Amino acid sequence: MLLLGVRSRLDLATTTQLYRLLPVRLARRSLHPQPKYVAGPFVGLSHLKRRMAETPSVGEVRAPSPPSDAPAAKKPRLQAHKGAPASDKARSLSKSQKRRAQYNSLPEPCSADDVLWREINDVLGEDYVNNALAEGTDRQSPFVYHQELELQVVALCSTGSALATSSESSRPWVVVVPFSLPGETIRAKVYRNARMHSFADLIEVVAPNPELRDDSLVQCKYFATCGGCQYQMLSYEKQLDLKRDVVVKAYKNYSNLPETAIPAIESTMPSPKQYNYRTKITPHFEAPTKAQRVDPNNPANDTEQPKWLNIGFNRVGTHKVMDIEDCPIATPIIRETLPAVRANVVKNLYTYKRGVSLILRDSLPPVASATAEGAADTVSTEPETHVCITDHRGTVREKIGSWVFEYPNSSFFQNNNSVLPSLTDYVQSSIFGEPTDGRPKPTHLVDAYCGAGLFAITLSPHFTTVAGIELSQESIRAAKHNAELNYIPATKISFRAGDAADIFRTGCDEPFIKQLLAFRAQTVVYVSCNVHTQARDVGMVLKGSGEDGRGKYVLESLRGFDLFPQTAHVESVAVLRLVQEAS
Ligand SMILES: C[S@@+](CC[C@H](N)C(=O)[O-])C[C@H]1O[C@@H](n2cnc3c(N)ncnc32)[C@H](O)[C@@H]1O
């Protein structure tokens, strides 16, 4: 999932009490929050400058010495995770103040940097890190830019990178290196120093860990260069185990719950397809610079790709696009179509004034009258043909089990069709529990952040009424259309464009907790692409519930779903149950 803004979904099986709160006000706020990092062309910058311009680590050292206005010697101990998030504070600051604030502060809670920081703390020990912070030695890297090191990998971070240490180091320090595994000895080259850690490129695996690594499994020639996949050298079972560990660590580090409140985390639900599963890819390229437009060495014809032109994905650890001709995790039709799409870019290259993000989506062929033929498709015994939709304004059509969905190519839909039936079935069975458990069965479903209606529609047969809420008008139009396509009557299902914050605030502040608790939904199923913010939110819900004697939520189950095999990403499903009714 493209970085960049954390999105999570609350799918609620609830009581009429909650349902009555709809309709909600139409959202006035902007649909897409400003992404923290914007990928795009970095015309005219050298590789080094791009590296230095990256923002992967809050407070990272961008130059060998600290900024001149940074405190020199002894610093007070930094307070982690207190006060407003760095981004809120940063708004009113000048550039240099921002830089200094960033340099001095610890990462924003739950950000990718924070996840890394906490796991670095686990490796080095919190006392050691706290001492270094108090003494102001937390940025005194024992390594210099471009130093080559032999390292021992001690852990795998939830981000997918390895955390390694060096016996050559004058003091404990972590080096973050991609494509390496615990138990391995590696050689790596430092490219940036940060607080208590450095980032390095992998040069060589000197002593592999044969219990984990099997390089014969790698199916992509770009693996270990492209930033897309992290785990192709691992068996699929190991990948699933690692993703379970990520859920375990997230709840340990972020939920603030006692161990007894966290259920045994179930094994990660596998994806039926481990390659050829991605139904959408978005390769990008930079437009020619002025100099490139007039360069006599550029090919005069429109079929030869200039050497400087890269159409693909970001090189690992950078924002630099690398040329990618094939992507084995994408579906067959996308892989077949990619060469033609690339050739078309070359043909029209000098018409582009700025960088472009292409889109290739796997789709069933369009039908003349979707509404009339939607359900007819579901009984067809013909093998399905697929097409690739490359027009951003095109319509994509896909099936999840026997359900048909259509949505605009440019809007959100989950990218691994093969695992979605397991996901929706799991959510359904989690809501309803065992037939013999004696619990009253919910009759109303609210699907907050409903997108094109995936959960609302697939779960609709099990509820009396279903309501979906979603910020994007475009997705709401698609959701309504999908309800018709699947013959779900408007008396049963409704979709409204609006801000879910109008019924549930998206933050983890007190009003959110209070509202959620006041609704007293019987079951809350929280499906999230960010297990860290999910752990934080679930912790707050559990802590806030039961205080007024109006029912207490327990965390009944936790399970990761593998929506993106070969990558470090895990989707997490938390099931919260109201266990005590009002007295
Ligand atoms: C990750 S998608 C999930 C969509 C759907 N539940 C699914 O699984 O296909 C998250 C959705 O939340 C929507 N969204 C983001 N912020 C929202 C808000 N404040 N209120 C309502 N919807 C929001 C986005 O437009 C996006 O469609």
TrEMBL record:
InterPro entries: MeTrfase_TrmA_CS, NA-bd_OB-fold, SAM-dependent_MTases_sf, TRAM_dom, tRNA_(uracil-5-)_MeTrfase, U5_MeTrfase_fam. Residues 54-107 are annotated as: Disordered. One of its GO terms (molecular function) is tRNA (uracil(54)-C5)-methyltransferase activity, S-adenosyl methionine-dependent. S-adenosyl-L-methionine binds at residues 414, 449, 470, 502. Pfam families: tRNA_U5-meth_tr (PF05958). The keyword Transferase applies. The active site is at 529 (nucleophile). Gene3D superfamilies: 2.40.50.1070, Nucleic acid-binding proteins, Vaccinia Virus protein VP39. Residues 142-204 form the TRAM domain. One of its GO terms (biological process) is methylation. Keywords: Methyltransferase, S-adenosyl-L-methionine, Transferase. Belongs to the class I-like SAM-binding methyltransferase superfamily. RNA M5U methyltransferase family. This is S-adenosyl-L-methionine-dependent methyltransferase.
